[in-house]
Amino acid sequence: MNRERFEELAQAYGGQVARWPESERDAAALLMAAEPEYARRTLAEAEQLDAFLDAWRPKPASAALMDTVLAAAPKPRREPRWRGWLMPAGLGAGLAAACAAGVLFGVQLEQRATGANSAGAAVAELDLSGLSEDV
Amino acid sequence: MTGDPDEALLARVAKGDPAAVRALMARKLPRILSLAQRMLGDPAEAEDVAQETFVRIWKQAPKWKPGEAKFDTWLHRVALNLCYDRLRRRREIATDAPPEQVDEGPAPDRRLLAADTSVRVSGALQRLPERQREAVVLCHYQELGNIEAAAIMGVSVEALESLLSRARRALRGALADMVER
Question: In this protein, which residues make up the domain named RNA polymerase sigma factor 70 region 4 type (chain B) (predicted)?
Answer without folding.
Answer: 121-171
